[in-house]
Every structure is written in C-alpha cells, then in structure tokens.
Input
Amino acid sequence: MEFENIYTFLENKYGENVNKKIEYGCNFIMPEVNISKDLLNDLYKKFDFSYLVDIVGVHWPKRDKKFDVIYNLYSIGNRIRAFVKVAIIDEKIETVSDIWKSAIFLEREQYDLLGIEFKGHPDLRRILLPDYFKKHPLRKDFDLKDRSWFNDVDEQGLGIKYSK
Amino acid sequence: MAETGKLGEVVTINMGPQHPSTHGVLRIVLNLDGETIVDARPEVGYLHRGVEKLAENRTYHQFIPLTDRLDYVSSLSNNLAYCLAVEKFFDLDIPKRADYLRVIFAELTRISSHLVWLGTHALDIGAMTVFLYAFREREMVLDLFELATGQRLTGSWVRVGGVKEDVPEGFFDKAKEFISIFDEKIDTYEGLLTKNRIWVNRTVGIGKISKEDALSYGTSGPIMRGSGIKFDLRKDQPYSVYDEIDFEVPVYEEGDVYSRYLVRINELRQSNRIVKQAIDKIPAGPVMTSDPRVSLPSHEDVYEKMEALIRRFYIMSKGFKVPKGETYASIESTKGELGFYIVSDGESKPYRLKIRAPSFVNLGALLVMTKGYMLADLVSVIGSIDIVLGEIDR
Output
C-alpha cells in the first residue's frame, strides 16, 4: 500500500473537497472542515491508521481561516505516515477522541495553548496551564510582556496584586 | 454525593506533587474504594516553561540548548530529533562520520536513561541495591559525555548539519572499555531482579494494557513493545545510519510491568551492540556539513576572505533562514516516539514548533493501566511508564 493509493481512494470519494501536497518528505491530505471527520474515520477503518501520533494547532491571525489543525497519523502495518491538515474558521472542530483515545490528552493540550474547541470532547479542561489563566499563549496575539494575568493567581483572595 | 464502592465510600485523595515515586512534580487525583483504584487523573503542568513559545522567539540554533531541558536524562536524543527536523527543510547531506557519532551518542543516551529508569524503578518497589549498581555504570557513560561534549547532562552537542566537533583522542578506547564490561553488568542487574520473587510478585500481571488500548492511547516505545506491537522507528523509518546496523527489537506480549521491564533490559543489550558496531564501522572525515546555508565558514576563511567574515557575522547574529513550509521528523527516543513538527514562514525563527513528547502521551494511558489494581501497584506502574516531567510539561 502506497500513499498514492490512499489518496486516489479519497479523491474518488470526496472529489474537490480534498487536496494533497508533498512537502519536505511529508504527505499532507487537506480536506475541507465539513468532511474532515468522515475522512479521518475512513483512514482509521480502511487504511489501518490506528496510531494517532500527534495533533498540532497553528494560529494564522492574518488569514480568513484562522487556525490549522494537523493530525499526524501513522499506519504500523503499511509503514506510512500521513498528515491530515484542516483549516478552520471559528476555532471549533469535531473531536476525534471517539476514534483514537490518545486524542483525549492531545486535544486538551491544543485547547489549553491555542483555545481551539473540540466539540464532543469528554473532558475539555486546561492541562498544562492553571485554571485561572484566561489566555492562550501560543496564539500570535499573545503579548509576552503582559503580566496582568498575575492578578488572577490570587484565587484565595489574599489581596496580592501585581503592580509595575 | 459520595459514591459508594464495594468497601464503602469512595475516597478521593491526592498523590503528589511531592511524592518520591512520581519522579518529579506529578499530581495524581485518585478515587479509591478501600485500596482499589477506581479512577486516576494525572494533573500535570507544574514544570511548564512554555518551551514551544520560547522557540518562536529564538533562532533555530538558539533553540538547541532548550531541547536538552525537555527530557533531561536523555538530552542528546532530543538534540538529534530537533536537528533532523530542521535538516529536512534543507535536504542536507550529513557527513557519514557525523551520522555515526549521532548514533553512538543516541544509544549511549539510551543506556544512561534506561539505567536511571532501572535504578529508580527498582528503588520505588524496594530493591535498593540495583540503584547503586545502575548509577555506578551510568557514571561511566556520563564520563564519556563529559569527554566529548564538556557536559554530563545537557550536551547541546548535535548541530543542524552535523555535530559540534569531533570526539577527542582516546574517546573510542574509553567507550570500548565500557562496552566490554557492560554486558556482564546487565547480567548482574538481571541476577538481582529477573527471577527475584519479590520483584516478580510486584510486577507480573500488574498494570496490564492490551494491544488495542496501547495503540488507541498512542503509547510508544517500551510500553507499545511490551504489549506485543512491533514498532520501532529505528527499523520502521530508519534515520541517520540505523539501516546499516544490525540489531533486534525486543517485543513481549503480556503488556504488564514485568514485560516492559524485560523490553528495556533487552534494549540495554541491543544498545550496547549498536554502539559496538558503530565504533567498529565509523569512517574518518568531517563531522559538519559544508553546506553554506547552515554551516559557519572555517576560521581560516574568516581571516582571509571578506565574504566569509560577513556570512559568519550574519549567521551568528541573525541566524540562518529556513525555507517556507512545514515538516516533521521523529526518532525512537528512550521513552518512545519523540517528534518535532516545525512550521516555517521563511524567517530565521520558527513560526510554530510542536514537540511530540512521548511521556506526555504515555501518561494519558495511566488510568487504563491502573484501574482495578491496588494503590501500591500505582507506584510500580508509574515507574514502568518511565516518565520525565520536563518533557510532559515542556
């Protein structure tokens, strides 16, 4: 099984809604957001992509579709790695945690750092940052020198304030 | 709204963040029915330093020292994974000698990391002696690191395009000395543990994870191989010169703590074999690529040629520019699949860098491995996952 065969199947099924590119030795499949979940399901069921390696979110503030979500999939039987790259407009996308359990942790991380909401996720909470933190640091508009979040640290109301 | 279990009320307790068996600052919120675990929720982030954000504000070379601080007991593999990802943008020709040196150091790193795991895991379960022996041998590996890189833990020695410099004279003799005695030392550890009745009782049949769950939860490395899945990036997607070296991938079917222990012990033997072959095969030659896009010009050129001086100044002050696009490279690190996903917008700093940390994903499977077991078994399960919090929290 080669990547080309997989892509031919997807092209026949989804037509213009899916694109591909090969960049620096990585195979990218780029579906529209409305069919992305079906496409991922197909990859899982028909092509043995049973190992979800990673989920990456990228923020593009100047684009119409402000976020990219990239699923890094690996098929152990066929030794193929494929990246499914979905561009989304309103920072919301369906969860894949019902297909791969590893998405439970990986989606929580992207929610925490980029603020992408995964609809249907069983336990969407912050994971690396504390709950009182309101912002999403990996967004491009996050100000590195802004220390105002420090005022939220005072959860117990002890009157600790950050002043400059 | 107290839940009731078989033995009365289900109690919620905190384990950590300050607990000797959590290997750092990991907090686990446990629901206990008597001493049986009903629910275990790992709470991480105590060591979060925002490494991925820091990367966006540093040049590609400035980020190398930060990769050391991810999984701080196997820093040289982290360097390697990051540099492989950046090299993919340029399609660089890495000199053979540099590739072999990378393999030698990646495997020595695996040995030193697995020895830390072996020592602390055994210490958690109550076998004090193994810890002392394991750290005695680890000291020899760290001496080798010190000889070549100048640092015992944070090497920062692998560069985009090669390695920083060639190993000093006498390094290979010292490495061979270590290799020749190490197989016997592994026999010693095995003599202390493998058939030890207490060890067997504490590990066999504990923390089971099935083949399907191991795959679905995205575990990699020894956990996956301990559950009967033959997957090792060194074989499946060979990088550097692993395809020129003969070694085996140990796989065990049971999926319990004991089989993960056997996987790692056998990996120690295989790593030793790889280092031995690599030292025998290593060719002479340069250790850094001469590609002008990433490498610094030589000192002689800088003293004599104006353009070499300018290029050196430019790379040192602004960093090299990386072509637009996105790519991913991963290696079989000591804990599993360690990958770097880099998005470049054509500047000298990454636009976005995502670290696929093996410990982070492996920890996600903690509940499956502990549900229904006793509280005391949690300690041996955490030890068998082999977590490093620097990598989980990033």
The CA atoms of residues 36 and 374 of chain B lie 5 Å apart. The two ends of chain B are 36 Å apart (CA to CA). Chain B touches chain A through 41 residues (CB under 8 Å). Chain B has one domain: 51-392.
